[in-house]
From TrEMBL:
This is CRAL-TRIO domain-containing protein. SMART domains: CRAL_TRIO_N, SEC14. Residues 107-280 form the CRAL-TRIO domain. SUPFAM superfamilies: CRAL/TRIO domain, CRAL/TRIO N-terminal domain. Residues 20-39, 288-343 are annotated as: Disordered. Pfam families: CRAL_TRIO, CRAL_TRIO_N.
């Protein structure tokens, strides 16, 4: 499919330098290309307020709309969320933007033996599919091949890769803006002995995804959910926004027909009822539009700085410094320490 024009969304010439469609596939108020005048005004107000406090990065319209949607278009709450996110981005791993450029997860093949988590092709709506097999989690074995900190750095790096290049490439192929992904969380093998581990991962996932990567979850299919999981989920969902909860489908072992209604069989790994068998294994293939030259572009973080507009250089230093910074607007983060990279 051909790339579409940027019609339908008012672009800010200073910040909005997109090379992918900007009209959202989600035809609901608050999404790019489907905003009301009041919502457009909220974007302008949020951007102006952040500029006045010295922020210069990540102020593009699509990003600000995500933060506003996450806070029901309350500008002050969206501002608080944004500033806390920028503080975290500047501090985590020496700066998230630099981490995404330099992180090398050399132990990935070994780690995936005990905790498979990977992107693989797209669903019927064109969104990247993310697979996480919590039933295989073995923290004791994992800690023999990696550390908790490197696991977390990898998860954050994958969030960044979702934003660029995965979603832009998927959007180009779909011909509309895609901002979310479809997650498959396989619970096969999760029993009482692992219940605590699963609960911990889900709790930390809700923290990092909601606080720093809002509005990234499109659909979540929890498959092979064990007996009693609904009780655990009832606790976990207290930490989740109601909008997020509505996107979650908890299924037992008879999940295949519902999952295949969302993910084409040729894109779904064979072990989940699909037909895909990538050479070397689906979990290490990273197959998707982001690997296809027709749709893929060099991520901005990999481009020479001279090729990136100054307001989008993404250096990981978006928090204002010196007298421009208002420390009262930045709250200390107490969120989670790990998260599935799809949410």
């Amino acid at each position: 499919m051909a790339e579409t024009a940027n019609a339908g969304m008012e672009l800010d010439p200073k910040y909005d330098h997109y090379d992918f469609p900007t009209v959202s596939a989600t035809k609901q108020p608050g999404h790019p290309g489907h905003t009301t005048k009041e919502q457009d005004a909220a974007v302008h107000q949020l951007r102006m307020t952040l500029e006045q406090e010295g922020y210069t990065k990540n102020l593009d319209t699509i990003t600000l709309l995500r933060f506003l949607r996450a806070r029901k278009f309350d500008v002050q709450l969206a501002k608080q969320m944004f500033t806390e996110s920028e503080k975290w981005r500047a501090e985590f791993g020496g700066g998230v933007d630099n981490l995404a450029r330099t992180f090398d997860y050399t132990e990935k093949p070994e780690v995936f033996k005990y905790y498979p988590q990977y992107y693989h092709k797209t669903d019927k709506d064109g969104r990247p599919v993310y697979v996480e097999q919590l039933g295989k989690v073995d923290l004791e074995a994992l800690r023999k091949v990696t550390t908790d900190e490197r696991m977390l750095q990898n998860l954050v790096t994958e969030y960044e890769k979702l934003a660029d290049p995965r979603l832009p490439a998927a959007s180009r192929k779909a011909g509309c803006l895609l901002e979310t992904c479809c997650t498959i969380m396989d619970m096969k093998g999760v029993g009482l002995a692992k219940a605590g581990q699963v609960y911990g991962y889900l709790q930390r996932a809700s923290g990092i995804s909601q606080n720093y990567y809002p509005e990234r979850l499109g659909k979540l299919y929890v498959i092979n959910a064990p007996w009693g999981f609904s009780g655990v989920f009832a606790v976990v969902k207290r930490f989740l926004d109601p909008v997020t909860v509505a996107k979650i489908h908890v299924l037992g072992s008879g999940y295949k027909s519902e999952l295949l209604a969302q993910v084409p069989k040729e894109n779904l790994p064979k072990e989940f009822g699909g037909e895909c068998e990538c050479k070397g294994g689906c979990q290490l293939s990273d197959e998707g539009p982001w690997q296809d030259p027709q749709w893929a572009r060099t991520p901005k973080r990999a481009q020479p700085v001279d090729n990136i507009p100054a307001t989008e250089s993404h250096t990981g230093e978006g928090v204002p410094t010196g007298t421009d910074r208002n420390p009262g607007m930045v709250q200390e983060q107490t969120g989670g320490h790990a998260a599935p990279a799809a949410q």
